[in-house]
Amino acid sequence: MRETADDLVLVINSGSSSIKYQLLDPESGAVTASGMVERIGEENGGIEHRADGKTTEHRAAIADHTAGLRLVFDTFAETGHDLADAGVRAVGHRVVHGGEVFYRPTLIDDDVVAAIADLSSLAPLHNPANVAGIESARELLPDVPQVAVFDTAFFHGLPDAAKTYAIDAKVAAAHGIRKYGFHGTSHEYVSGQVAELLGRDPADLNQIIFHLGNGASASAIRGGQPIDTTMGLTPLEGLVMGTRSGDLDPGIIAHLMRSAHLSIDQVDTLLNRDSGIKGLSGVNDFRELQRLIETGDAAAELAYNVYIHRLRRYLGAYLIDLGGVDAITFTAGVGENSPQVRADALANLSPFGIEVDPTTNTAKDRTARRISPPDAEVAVLVVPTNEELAIARAAHQVAETA
Ligand code: AMP
Predict the structure, then answer these.
(1) Among 185, 214, 288, 385, which residue has the most ligand 1 atoms within 8 Å of its CB, making it the best to mutate?
(2) Which residues are recorded as binding ATP (predicted)?
(3) Which atom of ligand 1 is nearest to the CA of 286?
């Protein structure tokens, strides 16, 4: 079936063993189709594809990202949206690490692919997968402009004092060690939505944004530009996450290697996959955590308290960094859906003009909204993030100006 015009964008988010994708209109945000390929490289791989209100599933062994993306294209064709003829104006690729090199959405050519691959030492789990997704998509849609949109880009201009780690400057320079920040597409998109919702010029706003999903990060934004963020060289620093520790004493790593005889890869796995909410409570899904707390599970309650404690620590830091805040915004899975987290994160802060209205906070509303009392000094907001739409818009813009 032919879509309206050459105006749709295929957004590809290629992870180490998965490919998430959406075909959407960058202007209206209307989604033609979306889905996910899972367990690439395993025997029991598969695709779940949603289009026209129907879900199509296939199970198969998927050898690699090329086979995964080919399955995506075949499933599109099978469900009546042949990508070769679907009006795809651009392909937007989410790329996790842009290093010092990339700080804006970039039209992909061979040199760009090589440069993204070169940055793999900074993001060994993510950038190789992103490259695999890009190479496959270029093969399958050779005539369509492909654009890389970087998770780090929004934070490229962080002030020196915020982005510099206090280690030997020569070692840091030799190994690209600085705070890069991640979830930038989400922080940028949400901060723009906040300004729109408040009817204010972004240049006049001091904002704090909490992106609380499986991964979690906060940012302090002055006049539309971030001045600090919680994630660092890698997406491990900062807030407590589903399976990631966030901040810890760096001495713990040497201690574990010496005393527990863990290898560096085991430490990496421990901190990235077996820590955070999961490490403390045994579950990484926030809904399960809340269920456990209701049953009186002490470990789950401690995990929750550590999560909130860390969040409030950054709230305090960013309030001071910004010298006052106009808007505090919650987004992503937990931020959009847990009134409890929002209320606890901002409890007892009325001396700072920060209040949450219990009625609007707990209302079953999925739209962007204000949850502070109308007369409160600081606007507290819930804004659904939409990284796919932000990537689609960026990719479309680059394709139009290329
Ligand atoms: P994301 O990475 O943005 O998809 O967010 C995933 C996280 O959001 C998981 O920990 C989910 O448990 C959490 N989440 C989703 N829905 C809810 C909900 N209704 N209440 C609390 N947490 C939720």
Answers:
(1) 214
(2) 20, 211-215, 285-287, 333-337
(3) 12
